[in-house]
Amino acid sequence: WMRMLLVGFYSNEEAVVMDQLLRRHAQVQDTALVQTLALRPRQVRRILEGRLMRDGLVRRETEGEGATAKTFYTISPGCVAQTAARLQKLEDSLARAGSAEYQCPKCLRGFESLD
Predict the structure, then answer these.
(1) d(Cα 59, Cα 54) in Å, to the nearest integer?
(2) 58-84 residues labelled b (16+ CB within 10 A) or e (exposed)
(3) How far apart are CA 73 and CA 33, in angstroms?
């Protein structure tokens, strides 16, 4: 269901980068993602540090200091909770917004939303 969320709420690039992190289940350097996805380094960092980090799906960890510093990205421990909360919010808004019955404009026959 995480992939469904990514496809539904994020751009294709964000979904592909996040999918790579999900598949690897480990800390990944942005340079490894650059090689795997054939994207530019700046583009990969922008994707990772953009909405994915702001939404709490990705976490950044830096080892070392100065020129020898290495940056790794991994799935955030709160990722599942963030995803569940977002899907629940969507479900609640859909329940409030729509009625349970629809009416055909031509024949005026009523249908339930599950039909």
Answers:
(1) 9
(2) bbbeeeeeeeeeebebbbbeebeeebe
(3) 10
3-class SS of residue 97: helix
Tell me how far apart the alpha carbons of residues 22 and 79 are, in angstroms, rounded to a whole number: 11
Token pair, residue 30, equals 């942005």
Cα Rg, the chain, nearest whole Å: 20
Contact 110, 103 (CB under 8 A): yes
Per-residue pLDDT tens digits of the chain, which is 115 residues long: 677 778 778 888 888 888 888 888 888 888 888 898 888 989 999 999 988 888 888 999 888 888 888 889 988 888 888 788 878 887 887 777 666 677 777 787 777 765 4
